[in-house]
Amino acid sequence: RTSTAIFAEDAKINNMIDLDSPKVVNTDTLEAGEKKVYCRCWKSGTFPLCDAAHVEHNKACGDNVGPLIVDAAKA
Length: 75
Ligand code: FES
Fold this sequence. Notes:
Layout: E1 35-38, H1 53-61, E2 68-71
Antiparallel strand pairs: 1-2
The protein binds FE2/S2 (inorganic) cluster.
FE2/S2 (inorganic) cluster (FES) binds near residues 40, 44 and 53.
């Protein structure tokens, strides 16, 4: 694929999260020893946290996306 494909309407990644917003940005803070699992497939019903919707997405289209797991070290 060429870089122009990235801007094609059919290449849109987000089809359900804050669609009225010009840019979806989330911030979060982790406590020491806390772990969070963040969605990277844009299909989660609990976005920005992963709800395992990526599993169904990968099955449906052969993709291989998965979450970002962040683990804050204990102080
Ligand atoms: Fe999107 Fe898990 S639901 S990465």
